[in-house]
């Protein structure tokens, strides 16, 4: 398999040094920029500073578990919306997998992992991120534009035609908070109305054409 056409940054979080070194060597050989951390605190600091494209994280970490790390990153809007979080762990039972996915992970892989499957999962996550960066004209969203995970959720719901009250109920936040998110989104994306938000949410791959109702 050839190296990725454009460089992407992957953070590997693993407390067993030999496994961490193996992951780093494998992903570096595929052309990725690889960052490493051995616990949740190190990982959180790197995520906030470097905004990696993908985080590959063990569950059983010293201090905070990987589940707790992801939950806290999402709760504080510290995980960039375009960062895909993938669990890679020896815990294979169904309930743990559900816990990881409910926390916000895009995938849950069990050790020992098939490396070809891992690379396909990575490519899939990166392709989705590229779609998010596209507008209807095919031009990329400026690289300095960053939507938090919560802002991305609000934008996606706007694209589906949801009103302020509906968004508030679904995300379990106040209508005033939704209104503040909408103002921030409009400013960041340089748009002025719900029609523009809907258009952009479709272009970014957050909403399909079929999901958007025929209304502004």
From TrEMBL:
InterPro entries: CheY-like_superfamily (IPR011006), Sig_transdc_resp-reg_C-effctor (IPR016032), Sig_transdc_resp-reg_receiver (IPR001789), Tscrpt_reg_LuxR_C (IPR000792), WalR-like (IPR039420), WH-like_DNA-bd_sf (IPR036388). Keywords: DNA-binding, Phosphoprotein, Transcription, Transcription regulation, Two-component regulatory system. The keyword Metal-binding does not apply. Pfam families: GerE, Response_reg. Residues 9-126 form the Response regulatory domain. Residues 140-205 form the HTH luxR-type domain. GO terms for biological process: regulation of DNA-templated transcription. GO terms for molecular function: phosphorelay response regulator activity; transcription cis-regulatory region binding. The keyword Membrane does not apply. CDD domains: LuxR_C_like, REC_OmpR. The modification 4-aspartylphosphate is found at residue 58. GO terms for cellular component: cytosol; protein-DNA complex. This is Response regulator transcription factor. The lineage of its organism: Bacteria, Pseudomonadati, Pseudomonadota, Alphaproteobacteria, Rhodobacterales.
């Amino acid at each position: 398999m050839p190296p990725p056409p454009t460089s992407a940054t992957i953070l590997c979080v693993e407390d067993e040094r030999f496994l961490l070194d193996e992951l780093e060597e494998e992903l570096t050989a595929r052309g990725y920029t690889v960052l490493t951390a051995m616990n949740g605190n190190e990982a959180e600091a790197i995520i906030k500073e470097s905004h990696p494209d993908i985080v590959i994280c063990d569950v059983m970490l010293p201090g905070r578990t990987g589940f707790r790390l992801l939950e806290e990153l999402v709760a504080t809007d510290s995980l960039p919306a375009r960062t895909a979080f993938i669990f890679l762990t020896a815990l294979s039972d169904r309930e743990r997998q559900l816990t990881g996915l409910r926390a916000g992970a895009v995938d849950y892989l069990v050790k020992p992992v098939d490396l070809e499957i891992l690379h396909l999962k990575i490519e899939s996550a990166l392709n989705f991120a590229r779609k998010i960066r596209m507008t209807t004209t095919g031009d990329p969203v400026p690289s300095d534009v960053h939507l938090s995970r919560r802002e991305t959720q609000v934008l996606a719901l706007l694209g589906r035609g949801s009103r302020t009250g509906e968004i508030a109920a679904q995300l379990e936040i106040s209508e005033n908070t939704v209104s503040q998110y909408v103002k921030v989104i409009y400013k960041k994306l340089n748009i002025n109305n719900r029609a523009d938000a809907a258009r952009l949410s479709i272009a970014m791959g957050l909403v399909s054409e079929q999901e958007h109702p025929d209304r502004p």
